[in-house]
Fold:
Amino acid sequence: GGMSYTTFWLYLSVEEGLEISGGEPFLRRFRLTERMRLSKDDIETLRLAAEKGNSAAEYGYARWLYAFAPTDEAFGEAEEYFKRSMPYIPDALASYALMLRYGDTKEHVMDLEQSDKLMQQAAKRGSQRALQQLMRFRIFGQHCETEPAQAAAEIERYIEANPDADPYFHTLLGYAYEETERTDDAIAQYEQAVAKGESSLARERERL
Structure:
């Protein structure tokens, strides 16, 4: 069932350092697979909170299940938890849209049209994950046209308007610059991402 607004913002404090909340620090942790290195205790805490109906935990646990698929049932469970948390967590809607895009839902049908529609909805609701995915598609052209230069211009505007946004936007801008052969600018963006705390990025800097 639904959750009241108050319970949704309820913090479940965890000694392990994983604070479950609908706030940006928690959501940011689950936006990229590279950031989801969780201890066994963290995973168990997430699972229990998800089972109790905490929306943020449902989302985080679903992301972990979908990223690492520890069991054969993981995708089905992830889909259920994404659907439950979608009304409260826009990033969950973006994640469900991706499942549809890759045919990973129970129906195993790739539905690009519905996926794009839901991704746009999630972006309108303020999902940074949705915006990041939409930009990725435009930079690398997964089932769509590539427009790295336009994507770069949009990401630049976004970063300017949202200086506290997820550092992954700098990484994406770096990718867009690389695709348009602006290597020095790309390196500068990767360095910005690292400066803003992006730990998953050291290898990009090494690669160039």
Observations:
- Residues 1-16 have pLDDT under 50 and may be disordered.
- DSSP finds twelve helices and no strands in the chain.
- The radius of gyration is 17 Å.
